[in-house]
Amino acid sequence: MSRIKQLRIIVLLDDSFVAGQAEITDLNDKLSDLTQKIMSLKFEVIQMMEESYVKFNILHQETVQLDGKVKALSNEMNELLIRVETQTKRDLQNSTGELERLSVSLQEVTLTMQLVQQLVNIDTVMKEATQAKEKGCYFEAAKKLKNIGLLLEQCSDTELEIFNALTSEKSLLEEHFLYDMMEVWNSCLKWEEAETRKDVKKVILKVDGENIMQLEQVMQALNYFEHLDFYLKKFGNKVLKYLLMPLITGKTTVEIHKESNLTIIEVESNAAFPKPHYMVVFANVMDVFNFLYSHLNVVIQENVTFLNKLGEMISEEFCEFLIKNCLADTIPSHSNDLEAYEVIAKATEDFQAHLAEIGFLATSNQSILEYARNVDILFANKTCQILLGRAREIMKKNLHEIMEVGPISPSGHLEKEEPMEKINPFGTLKPEIELSDNTFQFPKCQISKSTHELLMLVYEVLEEAVQSTDFCSIRLFCTARNIFELYGAVVPTHHQKLLETIPQQVALFHNNCMYLAHRLVTLGHEYTGRFPVVLKSHTSTFIDQVTVLRDLGTSVFLKFMQGQRKQILDILRDSGLATLGEDPSITPGIEKAVRQCLRQLELLQTVWKDVLPATVYCKALGCLLNVLVEELIIRVTTVEDIPATTAVHLVTVFGVVIDRAPRVFQEPGRVHQFVKRWQKFRELVLILGASLRDIDDRWADGKGPLAHEFTPEEVKQLIRALFQNTDRRSAVLGRIK
């Protein structure tokens, strides 16, 4: 039995082998035939592509026929592939080299077929995109064009030249597509601008309602291509510049009407008028947004509308402009107006809600509402800004508009009171020298009216701080301090030229600084008990600014004094006095120079006498007069030879100084108290006109008035210069030691 079974198995294997060989032969024949057909089809497809995209011939019917051939050959290839896979699995262990070669050939044919299929698909999609565009289905056409790009990317490794032509065709198709969409955009949205009268501008936006569906398709297509943001930004900027901004900044009218298939909005603005009321602004702005919502709010993509996109482009800039040019003006500048602001805040909240409802403002954009709700901070900021602005304008006012300040003299005499010791048991403790009633008062002088006005403004600020909330009171107190810091920066800069050249301006600025510093010493103390608790916990004082203001006034005044000193010295040195030692003969220029210096001092007397405090005035004039006499003393005492005629002339010239100079002071007899070298100058004049005996008497063995002012060497030098060398001169020189 086993022998018979073995024979049967051998016979069955032989039959199977014969059948497999026949199948392989048939597959070879089929593959060869299919290869020829595919190569022929490839040639036809490429030829058709070249006709269409290189020679630009329209071959629509040929495309349809080729598409049918591709599908038929694709089916044949799929059947053949199945048979090869089946045969391979069946003869997996007994596969021959013939079957492997067959499989490789089939793979090559498959790749060729895929290439042909891609070419046909690209051509088909291109024609579908063109047809969709011609029908106005721009969004569908956009998707087709995008698909073409993906198909071409898949063929990027292919070396066929036809793919370069297809890539160029795709780019050209996109350009035409964008151009056609812009034509639709511009036909649906038309802008017109005209200047009807001087300062009056009219802007018109026309929307074609009949083509709104086409516009929706265009926007969807542009969004699909990621180009919408660019075009919508340009449109949004026009809406902002020509429609919204004029509504906020000037008198504006908004008209909406229809003409045939067009819906028109006209905005006429007049820049010559002031800003409108905030309610008028809200109403006009809402008219514009309602127009856009009713006639342009097309769907761009799922859950995204035209106004949503427009808001992404311009909402931030719009909100900033609205806040700066409208809402900022509604913030009260006085605490009494804060209650009335609730109405404004409610209107602003409704305005914000409506813009969010129509989709222009995102729910996350709360800038308008947050601005309105921060009224305390805004009130403080605005109030402080206004106050600093007022302070700056006051500081720029003329300094020469003056007023008098200082202790008020009593108009009458009080009745004589009983001595304190008669009614006070401690009367014996009363000091012999009492302080004056004016000891701690600002001295009598003149200041600028603007300085007093500035101080009154500071009092106004502090009174407002007393009545305000904690936050506002802190800001207002800081503003009061900032006003004085601003004073030190603005006034010296704004009045710089006058402070360098005009004596009255310098004196007034000095007084202004000193007056403000004097008031600042006690200013903080005046309000300490009235400030809110939050300020009481801080050091509410201005005392640190006292030194700053005093230094400022002093530095400007001293700088001017240095200029006057230099001017006096230059006059004297240019007069010939400096060359007196070389040429002892006195020239008319010396007397002229001395008189010029005196006139300069007398001019300062005229300007400063009633302006500066008496002590400051005397010190300033005394300092300059001391410069004059000290220079005269130095020039004369260094001369080696002074002829008698020169000495006489010098006495005459210096006599003019002695006669006129003391008159610059209110009490001429006290000139020696303010001019350090005055007595020395008088002694010099006496020496120039005295004899040797007179000089010897005034020296008085080093105990006379001459010895108090001059050193022995200086006196000897003058004697040698004035008198000839005689025994008498030698005797006098010997006694001066």
UniProtKB/TrEMBL annotation:
<feature type="domain" description="Centromere/kinetochore protein zw10 middle">
    <location>
        <begin position="202"/>
        <end position="395"/>
    </location>
</feature>
<dbReference type="Pfam" id="PF06248">
    <property type="entry name" value="Zw10_N"/>
</dbReference>
<dbReference type="GO" id="GO:0007094">
    <property type="term" value="P:mitotic spindle assembly checkpoint signaling"/>
</dbReference>
<dbReference type="GO" id="GO:0005737">
    <property type="term" value="C:cytoplasm"/>
</dbReference>
<dbReference type="GO" id="GO:1990423">
    <property type="term" value="C:RZZ complex"/>
</dbReference>
<dbReference type="Pfam" id="PF22766">
    <property type="entry name" value="ZW10_C2"/>
</dbReference>
<dbReference type="InterPro" id="IPR009361">
    <property type="entry name" value="Zw10_N"/>
</dbReference>
<keyword id="KW-0132">Cell division</keyword>
<dbReference type="GO" id="GO:0006888">
    <property type="term" value="P:endoplasmic reticulum to Golgi vesicle-mediated transport"/>
</dbReference>
<keyword id="KW-0498">Mitosis</keyword>
<dbReference type="InterPro" id="IPR055148">
    <property type="entry name" value="ZW10_C_2"/>
</dbReference>
<feature type="domain" description="Centromere/kinetochore protein zw10 N-terminal">
    <location>
        <begin position="34"/>
        <end position="126"/>
    </location>
</feature>
<feature type="domain" description="Centromere/kinetochore protein zw10 C-terminal">
    <location>
        <begin position="440"/>
        <end position="569"/>
    </location>
</feature>
<keyword id="KW-0995">Kinetochore</keyword>
<feature type="domain" description="ZW10 C-terminal helical">
    <location>
        <begin position="592"/>
        <end position="736"/>
    </location>
</feature>
<dbReference type="Pfam" id="PF20666">
    <property type="entry name" value="ZW10_C"/>
</dbReference>
<dbReference type="InterPro" id="IPR046362">
    <property type="entry name" value="Zw10/DSL1_C_sf"/>
</dbReference>
<keyword id="KW-0131">Cell cycle</keyword>
<comment type="similarity">
    <text>Belongs to the ZW10 family.</text>
</comment>
<dbReference type="GO" id="GO:0005634">
    <property type="term" value="C:nucleus"/>
</dbReference>
<keyword id="KW-0158">Chromosome</keyword>
<protein>
    <recommendedName>
        <fullName>Centromere/kinetochore protein zw10-like protein</fullName>
    </recommendedName>
</protein>
<keyword id="KW-0963">Cytoplasm</keyword>
<dbReference type="InterPro" id="IPR048344">
    <property type="entry name" value="Zw10_middle"/>
</dbReference>
<dbReference type="InterPro" id="IPR048343">
    <property type="entry name" value="ZW10_C"/>
</dbReference>
<dbReference type="Pfam" id="PF20665">
    <property type="entry name" value="Zw10_middle"/>
</dbReference>
<dbReference type="GO" id="GO:0051301">
    <property type="term" value="P:cell division"/>
</dbReference>
<keyword id="KW-0137">Centromere</keyword>
